Structure formats: C-alpha cells, structure tokens
Amino acid sequence: MERLRKIIHIDMDAFYASVEQLDNPELRGKAVAVGGSSQRGVVSAASYEARKFGVHSAMSSVIAKRNCPELIFVKPRFERYKEISGQIREIFFEYTDLVEPLSLDEAYLDVTENKKGNPSATLIAKQIRNRIKEKTGLNASAGISINKFIAKIASDINKPNGQKTVQPEEVIEFLEELDIRKFYGVGKVTAEKMYRLGIFSGKDLKLKSEEYLSEHFGKSGAHFYNVVRGIHLSEVKPHRIRKSLGAERTFNENISSEIFMLERLENIAEEIERRLKKSKVAGKTITLKIKYSDFTLQTRSKTIDYYISGKDLILEIAKDLLYQEKMKNSVRLLGISLSNLNTEKGDSKDEKKEIFVQLKFKF
C-alpha cells in the first residue's frame, strides 16, 4: 500500500496589492488596484477592500473604477514583488526541498518527509504562515491534504489569513459537497456546461461515468472522473519544466490595419527571441493570440517538424496565421507563444490507482 503524501499549498493574500499597502501606509485599509488606470488599463490585483466592490484581477480599469469610485490605482513594481517572493521561498526551503512554485505568490510543498521532522503538515503550514508574517509583514493562506488538487482548493476556503486541512478520511465527503465551480480547473464556460448536464456539485459529478465525462469534456473527462474520487497523482516538482513561452501586447487604441499588426508582431517576435535565448529553449508549435475590440478571443496555431527560436521564423509563421482568415473586428491585443518545447519529455502513462484511507494518518 502506497503511503499518502502530505501536501501544502501556500497562497499569498492579494499579494501585489498587499505589498503596495505594506510599503505605503497611506494605502492600508483602502481599496487598491495594481494596474493601469487608463481607458485601456487592466487590474492585475486588487486589495480585499476593493474586492468588496466586485473589483478583481483581469477586470477593465474603467469597470473597476465604476464599481468602486474610491479605488486607488498603483503601478505594478515587479522587481519588488520578486524580491519578497524570494524571501518567502527561502522560508519554504527551511522545511522541505520539494517546493514547486506556481507563480510569485503561490507554491506547493511536499512535507511528507521534512527538515523539521514534524509529522503534522497542519502545524508546519501554520509555522510557515507565521514565519512569512514575521519576515515580510504579509499574510498567507494555506490548504493541506493528500494531493495538490485538494490542497489548492482547500487554501481558498478560509482566505484571507487562514488555512484548511482536509484529512484523508474527509476527502471524499469534502469533494462530494463541493460546488462544481470550486473545483480547480473548472472555469466559467466548463461550469455552465456542467450545469446544463445537471452537474452542480462533486456528488453530481461522481455519478457520471468516465465514458460520459470523456464524451462531453474530451481529455478533461478522465481528469474530472479521477479528482472527484480523490485521485490526483501529480507530484510536487521542484524544477517545473516550462511548457510554453510567449509575449503579448495590449494596444492604447484598437488597430484594424494589417500593416500595423505586422509591426506589432515583429516587436513581439523580437521579445520572444530574447526570452528564448535567455531560457535556452526552442519550440515547434507557434500560437497567435488575437483579442478583438469586443473582447472576444481567438487563437490560431501551427506545428512544424523542427525546433525554432529565431525571430524571423517565428514572425514568418505568425504572419501566415494572421492571414489565415479575415479579421472579425478591430484588434486590441496580439500575442505569440511557442509550445512543444525542447524541454519536454514524453509522459509515461500512470496506472490507475485506487484511493485508500488510513485513519491513523493525520495531518
């Protein structure tokens, strides 16, 4: 019988906005949005005071200001965020070397075997959150359970500045009672499709066969079938393999001229070439991302037989994708990304494993 793992998901609370409030006492207790306040601006992060008014990341700055007239916009300072993120990761490594960062403000930790010799993942999570507060002055939330999927869901339960442990014997009930919208990876479109199929909770999802879910959700069907049963075998990977690399630009004014679009794409291709050289990677699949003035999004992709990293070839293929079909509208954003990188390895097929519960195995 395989031993259950003890996984912690640490998620900083409103990280960018909290850093700004930390560094500028005048912003504390006020509705703050990190991002541009211009007509074309987008909110990168919002303080909890702003979230009460419905302000959230990826929202148009115009709509955010309309929702919260007292909203204060602050320009992002990514170097500062990276600096504090580095301090937080140093704390993680005091407890385990199995740390998988997802972004500057969140990470998975496998503490099944840890440097403190502490058998309680719940206590370790609390200690880590206290250390983060002491070292940076910022609050973090945590989720603790037997796998990454459940830990990530759990970290959102008692936000902000809280934590939630889902014990092995609680996993099935926890997932069955969970609103389908709370399942990590179920976005708005997927949730609406599940609603149409009569799936509103984990319990409803569990009633569907794997064949049924695969028929309606493709490759994601097997994933949904397994995770609702507590089966998620992905390990915490200290050195995450990059799956794609790209760049995009949002324009101050919508553009409809293909000549202007090609100029922008050339600039984007130059940026990608720089990033590829820095990362020492190349890719086979080129994807063009187009966001129209009505905010509809379209992607066009092409896979070639060899790896590329040079600006000229990337731009040539991006041009082909641009001319692939007529533009639906004027464009507000263009982006290019490379995937199918030479860092990836063939995935081995994991054998299906049944979840087991050890009642004495406590977190």
TrEMBL record:
The record marks Y16 as: Substrate discrimination. InterPro entries: DNA/RNA_pol_sf, DNA_pol_Y-fam_lit_finger_sf, DNA_pol_Y-fam_little_finger, DNA_polymerase-Y, DNApol_IV, PolY_HhH_motif, Rev_trsase/Diguanyl_cyclase, UmuC. It holds the Pfam family IMS. Its main location: cytoplasm. Its EC number is 2.7.7.7. Its cofactor is Mg(2+). The keyword Heme does not apply. Monomer. This is DNA polymerase IV. It comes from Christiangramia sediminis. The lineage of its organism: Bacteria, Pseudomonadati, Bacteroidota, Flavobacteriia, Flavobacteriales.
